[in-house]
Amino acid sequence: MRTAKILYKNEDAGVLIQHNNGSFTFKYNKSWISDKTKPSISLTLPKSQHEFHSDFLFPFFYNMLPEGSNKQIVCKLNRLDLNDYFGLLLTTAKNDTIGAITVRVIDN
User: Fold this and answer.
1) Which of 13, 48, 86, 89 could be 18's S-S partner, Cβ–Cβ 3.0 to 4.6 Å?
2) Where are the beta strands (DSSP E) in the chain?
3) What is the mean pLDDT of the chain?
4) What is the pLDDT of residue 108?
């Protein structure tokens, strides 16, 4: 199991988990849900107390990944499998992203 902290404008919004079977779970932090001024991180992941589950990486996070030759270079330089989408997300979305979302690893 691997876990990542999801930040919205550098504030903790929720947690993304990749389970050992390859499925994913996203859950908003309770403090994020209780603050009515905080938005959803995505239209496809509306603010809710329930967890979101998926057999594959949620499209919102998948769309943050590099493609083509950029993906190949990042994977080669970081020794990542081309199909390790969670590892690729952790590598490429931890600092400088186009949107308000950044992803940081949580050590288990």
Assistant:
1) 86
2) 2-8, 11-18, 24-28, 52-54, 101-106
3) 93
4) 57
Token pair 């057999």 in the structure block, residue: 55
**Selection from 85, 89, 107 nearest residue 1 by Cα:** 107
Dihedral sign for Cα 41, 43, 72, 79, please: positive
pLDDT tens, 41-77?
999 999 999 999 999 999 999 999 999 999 999 999 9
Q: Which two tokens stand for residue 106?
A: 């949580």
Looking at the structure of the chain, the number of domains it has is 1
The CB-side HSE value for 58 (13 A sphere, CA atoms) comes to 19
Residue 92's Cβ-side half-sphere holds a number of Cα atoms within 13 Å equal to: 23
DSSP 8-state assignment for residue 40: P
